[in-house]
Design brief:
Layout (H helix, E strand, L loop, with lengths): L5 E10 L2 E11 L15 H8 L7 E6 L2 E2 L5 H5 L17 H7 L13 H6 L2 E4 L13 E7 L2 E6 L1 H5 L10 E7 L9 E7 L12 E3 L10 E7 L2 E6 L1 H15 L1
Length: about 250
């Protein structure tokens, strides 16, 4: 069994002399949604603050990938964990995109503070809307969708790669990605997803790259096993180039 990435051992938490959590041991499994249920003022928020290193335990410890979380560098912790409080307060006039972009800080280096990887990571998720068809386009290029004054090409990733013949509908979402190929006419493109996408923490132990000689489908960078589930890593640069060529040929 894979060791969970985040866990608490014999954890005790207190505010001054008031004990809130007493001798708690809990593991948060990777790649799953975990809920903490309890009455008001039972210590749920206090536990979360301790798990993300905002509150130092009065006893026991919190471990991240087997290491005591309070001994790890702050940037290393921030690459794996984040906390969204019940009543977040953002500076006035700050756009959602700017707020999301600040979450990329732990992944940046001193002399390269904004990279193509950061650009690709900042995405907007939209509800599905029927695209405007592009005459002569391949079946995986579903058409154009309107977004902030742009006409974005919408890609059916499963069709493009040959994984499945996905049929878009109301249950789908569209991810808007910033292109980084330097094409002035294609600064953004959209990808169809099944349901609402979510971020997951990927540990080294939970990810296995398939290095077999089996050929990869077009638009796929790698075939991996993540927490015992098969998954594909998309090649965004290749997909962007395919979209640009398809749009140009259909024009």
């Amino acid at each position: 069994m894979t060791d969970p990435g985040l866990r608490a051992q014999h954890l005790s938490l207190a505010y001054d002399d008031t004990l809130i959590v007493d001798n708690l041991t809990v593991a948060i499994p990777n790649g799953r949604i975990t809920g903490i249920v309890g009455a008001n003022a039972c210590g749920k928020s206090t536990l979360l603050r301790a798990l993300v290193r905002l509150l130092r335990p009065s006893g026991g410890s919190v471990l991240l990938d087997g290491e005591r979380i309070h001994r790890l560098p702050t940037k290393q912790v921030a690459r794996h964990l984040g906390l969204l409080p019940q009543s977040p307060t953002a500076p006035e006039g700050l756009r959602v995109e700017d707020l999301v972009a600040r979450g990329r800080f732990p992944h940046q280096r001193l002399f390269q503070q904004w990279s193509p990887d950061d650009e690709a990571a900042v995405a907007e998720v939209l509800s599905y809307a029927d695209p405007e068809p592009i005459e002569g386009a391949p079946d995986w290029l579903l058409g154009h969708v309107r977004w902030r004054g742009w006409q974005l090409p919408l890609v059916a990733f499963a069709r493009l790669t040959g994984i499945a013949d996905e049929q878009p509908g109301l249950g789908n979402k569209m991810i808007v990605l910033k292109a980084f190929g330097g094409r002035g006419k294609l600064p953004f493109f959209a990808v169809l997803t099944q349901g609402f996408p979510r971020l997951v923490t990927v540990s080294r132990d939970g990810l296995i790259v398939d290095n077999s000689d089996q050929a990869l489908p077009e638009g796929i960078q790698a075939r991996v096993v993540l927490n015992q589930d098969d998954a594909f890593v998309p090649d965004l640069e290749a997909i962007e180039a395919l979209v640009a060529n398809a749009v140009a040929q259909a024009a």
